[in-house]
Amino acid sequence: MNGTSKWNSSIAMVAVCAATLLPSMATAQLSHPVLRQARASLENYQPSRSLRAIRRLRSTSYETTAVRMEARFLATVAAVDLLVIGERRQNTELKRQVAASFEVADDVLIETLRAELESIEGEVFQPSVVDAIETLAVLAGEQPLRAKRHMGLRQGVLLAHQARRAVRGNSANTLGRLAELADDPCAETCEDIYQPFDERGRRALNALIIAQHITERLEEARTAGDPLSSALMGQIVSDSRAIQGATIRPSPRLPEGATVVSDDAPTAQVDTVIIVRERSVEWGRTPQVRFTERGAELVAQDGPILPETEKITLRGEVTPFPRPIDDVVEMLRSAQNVGTVAVASEPNVQTYVLTRVILSANQAGVAPSMLVAASPDGGIRAMPSNFRSEGARAQRARVQVHVRMGGFEIRTRRGRSDIRGFDLDEVRETLAGGDREHSLVRAMWAADAGPIFAAAFALDAAGMPVDFVTH
After folding, report:
1. What is the 3-state secondary structure (H, E, C) of 391-458?
2. Domain map of the chain by residue range?
């Protein structure tokens, strides 16, 4: 049975309640026959009517500076909105048509529109002008699109589309694409819904929460008569449905104390994490966030949600014999629907303790298939690993790393290398340029787990599938 945390739904919406979308058009200021006709033609941005209106606004002579300024505003902002429509609909021809209406080449259209916008005077126009200028920079690739709590309608359209593409695309890239769209919402204070996740996970979640709110504000803008949101309402509804139906797995934080690897170490999706400490064993589930019409909801199967865990203290002395630990087996048997299981460890846990916990997990029916370590900010870095008994696949592995008490022994086709002091840079140099062979990591029974994880992640980064041999 799924457990859903309700407290965060309202918080997720509170976090963006101040995000008022600026309208794409300022309120009309002046009455003039050409302006009146242009506003009527620009009501829903039908392309041919809008382009004719832009040409007429630009070709007419006006009696006063105020009328001329509003005509310039209407023509230029409408042109930017048509570019947004073209981008959203993937209509490259529309840009050429807008450039023709301004009598410039395609490659100078952005600069032309920017210069026009910068020349517009009048306080009432400035919010839309600023948003239009920033939108041009995004369309030109001069600055990244960023989800903001206060952002203009044009960039809101682009953000909703990018969020939809991220959640509908390759799931392996979803978090990365979303994280690129937003800043860390916990730079100063941190709402509860963000707290289980590392920085990358928080940025991804922040982007989608803001994007969902923006689709709601776009619908409000359409109801109020905004031409851009009216023209794109079909696409906006599709974006909204994709976001509302999304479930994402922001990368969670590991509890403190787990072995730390470099921030560029790989990551992969895991469902359940077993954490081995010197005198205890813990487990917890990685959370999901589900989006509905109510907002974002934290969801997990029954059991603790990381970084919270269920914990058992190891009783008495853990002896170096390769057999399960009864108390650990009993605790892990309580876990249901565990999915992909990973194992993490404190760096000073001895190999035989790690081995006995892995054997306990196997007996409990929650066999791990991943190694996980912490990134410098406490997030999860994960890699697949086969856990094998001594000698099971030693002949197949052409790259073998033996963790000793004082360093590494590495064997490849090129020979044997002894590395003292657990120097990972030297490990990487030794592995560089070799074939992407199947690899094996094994350790002396009393060696610490930290170097085991470090060696495994170094092999994984070198593109070598990894077996971890238990004793």
Report:
1. CCCCCCCCEEEEECCCEEEEEECCEEEEEECCCHHHHHHHHCCCCCCCEEEEECCCCEHHHHHHHHHH
2. 3-248, 272-279+314-470
DSSP 47-72: HHHHHHHHHHHHH---SSHHHHHHHH
Our separate counts of H helices and E strands in the chain read 16, 16
- Distance, CA of 145 to chain centre: 14
Contact 380, 454 (CB under 8 A): no
Instruction: Give the pLDDT band of residue 98 (cuts 50, 70, 90).
Output: very high
214, two tokens: 């923006």
Q: How far apart are the first and last CA of the chain?
A: 37
Average pLDDT over residues 310-333: 92
Q: How confident is the model at residue 307 (pLDDT cuts 50, 70, 90)?
A: confident
Who contacts 144 (Cβ-Cβ below 8 Å, separation ≥6)? 138, 180, 181
Angle between helices 351-364 and 326-333 (to 10 degrees): 40
Q: How confident is the model at residue 3 (pLDDT cuts 50, 70, 90)?
A: very low
pLDDT exceeding 70 applies to what percent of the chain? 88
Which of these, 464, 401, 467, lies nearest to 435 by C-alpha position?
Answer: 464
At residue 434, the pLDDT reads 61
Looking only at the bridges linking them, the beta strands covering 415-420 and 370-374 are unpaired
Please state, as a whole number, how many other Cβ atoms lie within 10 Å of the Cβ of residue 36: 12
Note the pTM of the prediction, 2 decimals. 0.80
Spell out the alpha helix ranges (H) of 198-260.
199-223, 227-231, 233-244
- State the helix-helix crossing angle for 47-59 and 65-89, rounded to 10 degrees: 150
3-state secondary structure of 213: helix
Looking at residue 436, what is its pLDDT? 60
pLDDT in tens, 412-441: 877 888 888 887 788 778 777 665 667 778
Contact call for residues 386 and 358 (beta carbons, < 8 A): no
- Burial label for 148, CB within 10 Å (0-12, 13-18, 19+), is middle
- pLDDT at position 426 is 82
pLDDT at 26 over 70: no
Nearest-CA neighbor of 448 among 403, 398, 396?
403
**How many angstroms separate the CA atoms of 319 and 201, rounded?**
39
Q: Could you identify the residue written with the tokens 């006006």?
A: 62
